[in-house]
Design goal:
The chain is of the alpha+beta class. The protein is 24% helix and 35% strand. The protein contains 5 helices and 10 strands, in the order H-H-E-E-E-E-H-E-E-E-H-E-E-E-H.
Length: 202
């Protein structure tokens, strides 16, 4: 990664404001209960042509995976060898995309998410926000079907808003989301995006 490009990206107004706000607040930890899994994801930013962009992945279709085919951030479960959840986010991003976040800049973390739904295992997900240079490249593994860089301004605007509709026990349920190309970012990832964007508001 280009060190000079990374330094310029850190000075971008939006990135600088996001960094200050993340570092000035205390992130909320979820209560860990017996049997809960721990996981971490990385919301990866770059500044391309003076435009901050956020990285999304589309997970590969996999039987038995509750997030099969979903739009997501790179990440996964905490393993015994991980000394921290931050290390989990770094390791998983390296494994899934061959993207080394330790060569970039870890801005900080957001509030934990602890979804309570029968369709998901009991889990706590800790989101981290990282910045990389604009010249990074990927080598996605079999868990990743596609990658997308999305300008933050398109997510913040009305045109970027979307809705995910699904049937739950025969009842049509609607969930807020973000439009990313032909896909919809919803669920846990939508909640992380909304949390991140709230820190960019003036």
């Amino acid at each position: 990664m280009s060190t000079r490009a990374l330094e310029r990206a850190l000075q971008h107004a939006d990135v600088s404001r996001l960094t200050r706000r993340i570092l000035s607040r205390t992130a909320v930890d979820a209560t860990i209960e017996d049997g809960m899994r721990l996981a971490a994801v990385a919301a990866v930013l770059r500044v391309f042509d003076d435009e901050p962009e956020l990285l999304f992945i589309k997970r590969a279709e996999k039987a038995g995976d509750p997030w099969s085919g979903h739009m997501a951030f790179p990440g996964g479960r905490h393993e015994p060898g991980d000394v921290s959840l931050e290390m989990t986010a770094v390791r998983e991003t390296q494994e899934e995309l061959a993207l080394d976040l330790s060569a970039g800049h870890m801005i900080g973390r957001l509030d934990d998410l602890a979804p309570r739904t029968p369709s998901l295992p009991p889990i706590i997900i800790r989101p981290y926000v990282a910045l990389v240079a604009d010249d990074v490249s990927f080598e996605p593994n079999v868990e990743v079907a596609a990658t997308y860089w999305v300008p933050l301004r398109s997510l913040r605007g009305e045109a970027g808003q979307a809705e995910h509709v699904m049937l739950i026990n025969g009842v049509r349920a609607r969930f807020p989301g973000y439009k990313v190309h032909e896909h919809v970012v919803w669920g846990l990832t939508e909640r992380i995006v909304r949390q991140l964007l709230s820190l960019l508001d003036p």
